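Side project, low priority. Logging it here so it doesn't get lost.
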Amino acid sequence: MQLIEVDDPADPRLDDFRALTDADVRADRRGIVIAEGVNVVERLARSPYRTRAVFGVRSRIEALTPVLADLDVPVFVADKWLLSDVVGFRVTRGVLASADRPPPPSIAALLGRAERVAVLEGLNDFENLGALFRNAAAFGVDAVLLDARCADPLYRRSVRVSMGHVLRVPFAVLPEPWPGSLDLLRGFRLFALTPRAGAVPLRSVATEGRWAVLLGAEGPGLSDAALDRADVQVRIPMADGVDSLNVATAAAVAFAQLC
């Protein structure tokens, strides 16, 4: 750990952390992963992702000293005002870290060692995506596959909401055309989660062998084409007058039942 005091918000060594507003989605800053908060930075430091730098207020840096001590990376310390000036918003969690984005894994290799998989269609809300990854980690889902329309799991808000667990659950983007690429899951029993009345109650399905659960975005849900690819359409029984759950909540219920 190389502890460096900074007092100039224009310091070029802080460029990894500069102007981290939601506009960085449009700017396509995809070569870098940003972790925010003590717990998430700690998980980043312990993950396979290579940490580039850490930037925060002294109290948060001190809390991370045990995990940062063995890292040969610059650790920049500043007051909260300079930190916020650089980042572009008030950093209430007091510390951030940057890491290199690794190359995407081979889908074949990922599926070759997986038994339980989540497959996502059109999930473009960063917070829902982060929460879903946290749930996947909690219930032992081995991998997550996304279609090309899904949001980036390594975007800052997704990483934060996942509490860093997106850094430990392997994921990959399925190739086009969709949903034809679901053919890559041959050997998995594919469950499609849907509120449709004709679907089988989730609690009644058998889960022997390898399985994958297909989840769609809130609002539109799964497309008809994706539903048609499933082996079984399943639903979460709910009280009258409630037709669906938040997608991350529905995923948690499904993972808990199927796992």
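Brief comment: The chain has a mean pLDDT of 92.
Revisit when time allows.
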